[in-house]
Amino acid sequence: MERKILIAGAGIGGLATALACGQQGMATQVFEKKQVLCEVGAGVQLGPNVLRLLEAWGLRAALDAVACFPQRLEVRSALTGALLGTLPLGARVVQRYGARYATMARVDLHTVLHRAVQAQGMAQVHLGQAVARVSQDGNAVELLTEDQRKRRANVLIAADGVWSHVRDFLRREAQARFTGHLAYRAMAKQSDLPESLRSDCVTVWLGPSMHAVQYPVQAGSMLNTVVLVEGAAPEHAQAWEQNAVRSELLEQLSGAHGSLQDRVRSMAQWRLWPLCGLPHLRGPQDMAFGRIALLGDAAHPMLPYLAQGAGMAIEDAAALAQCLQQGPSDDAQALLAYAQKRWHRNARVQARAQRNGKIFHATGLTAWARDTAMGVLGRRILDVPWLYQGP
């Protein structure tokens, strides 16, 4: 009998899951609450651990058309502008890890995955289908959408983000909360910027209670900038994307070096993301619940200080499809195997991202020690072999 697989959410994690399942010969149905398929956000960095999977799914040519492949990562002081350390990317990453390091617009990654799902023909995507209720018994899982239509299936995969409705039925104690971190994001055409502000590499500025990251996207034609600061929750913390006022951001960067302030001024339109999260994963019981599994931000939202949020969702998708196809014949056991395979790595990335945030935003002697170590051991500190080598 053909296994029926339902996926809640058609973001990057949901589409990656549909594509990965299709690669294993399994059809899926994807339910998305939005009326129009789109992806919010600005840019995304994809390490070799992720590129390896995407290229194995046959997406190399599609990625080549829209992504950038920076040759280096630079770390600078947000206070002085001084170069603290560098990490060669490009050919070194390929030689060391067997795949490239990419930067791209989130909307481009989402489009690449959606087109691949459409071309594969193994998934049906239902738009405007918000989840109203989920339930399960020993034989099946049932999903009820807000139009009161019921679907029964063997398994349900929740890839519906940090505010997951499916998770609300499973982990009622796990309510997403504001983390105390805010992300200001903007993009600009490189051709509209002064030549001195254009960039073909990943640049990170570290400062007290803040840091900034800048890198090219859309085949190098656009420059993505994100400034992460610590602050109070805005009035509408659940509003994932909000308008931001550039002058307010510049006030928070009043002590920053002129080169960083110039980069912020060069970006006309800014958006604000309050970063919300969950307690870190404690074990497989936080990712699998009988015939229902959580994936990506629905299971393990993480601060963007290791640039692996989208990457972990894509890794989840590959592992899930493999466990469903090659694991135990019992569906609940297959989902448990997926959770056992993934929870520890995801928890480790969550913890490392949180630790990085404290180091990036350090002050006083801690900041001095960080900058000094970066100058002496820059490459060794910036490289992350356990992550980039893959699960």
User: Which ranges are low-confidence, i.e. pLDDT below 50, for 5 or more consecutive residues?
Assistant: none
| Mean pLDDT across residues | 94
Distance between the termini: 31 Å
Beta-strand percentage range: 25-35%
Q: Could you name the CATH topology of the domain at 5-42 and 105-176 and 279-353?
A: FAD/NAD(P)-binding domain
- The total count of strands amounts to 19
Tell me the Rg in angstroms.
21 Å
Overall description:
The protein is of the alpha/beta class. It has a domain at 5-42 and 105-176 and 279-353: FAD/NAD(P)-binding domain. Helices cover 37% and strands 27% of the residues. The protein contains twelve helices and 19 strands. An eight-stranded mixed sheet has the order 5-4-13-14-15-12-17-16. α1 packs parallel to α9. The two termini are 31 Å apart.
How are the SSEs ordered, and which strands pair?
Blueprint lengths: L4 E4 L3 H12 L4 E5 L10 E4 L1 H9 L3 H7 L5 E6 L5 E6 L1 H8 L4 E4 H15 L2 E5 L3 E6 L4 E5 L4 E4 L1 E4 L6 H6 L6 E13 L12 E6 L2 E8 L4 E9 L11 E3 L1 H7 L5 H8 L4 E8 L10 E2 L2 E3 L14 H18 L4 H30 L3 H19 L2 H4 L3
Parallel strand pairs: 1-2, 1-11, 2-7, 4-13, 11-19
Antiparallel strand pairs: 3-6, 4-5, 8-9, 9-10, 12-15, 12-17, 13-14, 14-15, 16-17, 18-19
Helix pairs in contact: 1-5, 1-9, 2-9, 9-10
